[in-house]
Write a structure and sequence with these properties.
Elements lengths: L5 E6 L7 H13 L5 E6 L1 H4 L6 H18 L6 E5 L5 H10 L4 H5 L2 H8 L6 H15 L5 E3 L5 H18 L7 E3 L29 H9 L11 H7 L5 H10 L4 H27 L2 H30 L5
Helix pairs in contact: 3-12, 3-13, 4-7, 7-8, 9-12, 10-12
Bound molecules: adenosine monophosphate and tryptophan.
Adenosine monophosphate (AMP) binds next to helix 1.
């Protein structure tokens, strides 16, 4: 057994990742590989709450896998798997559902937002935090690198672990969210949180034209020397000192500053996009990574699940 702490995180296969996903979460996965025992997965069961087409699910799942490899996750250092290859998480979600009260889950932000928008809410959306708790607790995660919007979910996982431990005896470690303050909420082209649902994203594997179009659409309020929204995105890519000098030298020149941001984004994105294209050429090799990772994760998770079944009284032989 490794003495390293366990790091775990996941991304839903709901479409193209954006720069917010990268700086808020995915970049940390790459930087921390080797320092932790790493489990990074594709949250396909979570995506089912919104993705309900076989083609889309398959394509997006392979997509997240390619994204992971293209940003530099190395299967030698990281167990990369898909959630549905460890169906134990769904089994544990049921057990958690029986320990958790409705009023408690009704306080979750994601549920409250959906309700406030009068959306039709499926039971999966309501139960989403418990599936996430199972993802986190079964492999015994110590740290969970995520963006700010997932903080409450990690807290729910902690609460759920405590509840289970209280009822059935010490079983689960209490996980900790790992959120980088500087990138906790990456803003989009309109200044609100970058999010697919707001249509304000810069895709992580954008083409040159897409980068140009997205940056040119960044909302600027005339009058100020520094276009705030341009600066906010640019600050992801450069040190503050360097950036301040750049913005001081081009005071009020919004077009020039946007061009400089485009250049920096291209420098970041082009190599990753090219790597992703190369990986796409050999999808079967990439899928082998997922398959092998699934076996490793499955073995670890099944061991813990056996302990859970025993503690709950479901394992008679
Ligand atoms: P998702 O695509 O919803 O599975 O999100 C993947 C990861 O990206 C999660 O850890 C989110 O917290 C993070 N994330 C999503 N949007 C942003 C954002 N605008 N700023 C920072 N992190 C984000
Ligand atoms: N809910 C997360 C998101 O929307 C994805 C996710 C599912 C996850 N299970 C997880 C993240 C476990 C961290 C740990 O971004």
């Amino acid at each position: 057994m490794s003495s390293k702490k366990v790091l775990l995180s996941g991304v839903k296969p709901t479409g193209r990742p954006h720069v917010g996903n990268y700086f808020g979460a995915m970049k940390q996965f790459v930087e921390l590989q080797g320092k932790f025992e790493n489990y990074i997965f594709v949250a396909d069961l979570h995506a089912l709450t919104t993705v309900q087409s076989r083609e889309e699910m398959e394509e997006n799942t392979v997509g997240v896998l390619l994204d992971y490899m293209a940003i530099g996750l190395d299967p030698k250092d990281v167990t990369i798997y898909k959630q549905s290859d460890v169906p134990q998480v769904a089994e544990l979600t049921w057990i958690f559902s029986c320990l958790t009260t409705m009023p408690y889950l009704m306080r979750a932000h994601a549920f409250k937002d959906a309700e406030a928008k009068n959306k039709e809410i499926n039971v999966g959306v309501f139960n989403y935090p418990l599936l996430m708790a199972a993802d986190i607790l079964l492999p015994g995660a110590d740290v969970v690198p995520v963006g700010q919007d997932q903080k409450q979910h990690v807290e729910i996982a902690r609460d759920t672990a405590e509840k289970f431990n209280r009822v059935f005896g010490e079983t689960f470690k209490l996980p900790e969210a790992m959120i980088l303050e500087s990138v906790a909420t990456v803003p989009g082209t309109d200044g609100r949180k970058m999010s697919k649902s707001y249509g304000n994203t810069i895709p992580l594997f954008a083409t040159d034209e897409e980068i140009e179009k997205a940056v040119m659409s960044i909302v600027t309020d005339s009058g100020s020397d520094i276009p705030e929204n341009v600066y906010a995105i640019h600050s992801l890519l450069r040190d503050k000192e360097e950036l301040d000098a750049m913005y001081a030298a081009n005071k009020g020149q919004y077009k020039k500053l946007k061009e400089l941001l485009i250049e920096d984004l291209k420098t970041l994105i082009t190599p990753m996009r090219e790597r992703r294209q190369a990986l796409e050429e050999d999808k079967s090799a990439v899928l082998e990574v997922l398959k092998a990772g699934g076996k490793v994760a499955q073995k670890r998770i099944e061991e813990k699940m056996e302990e859970v079944r025993e503690k709950v009284g479901l394992k008679l032989y």
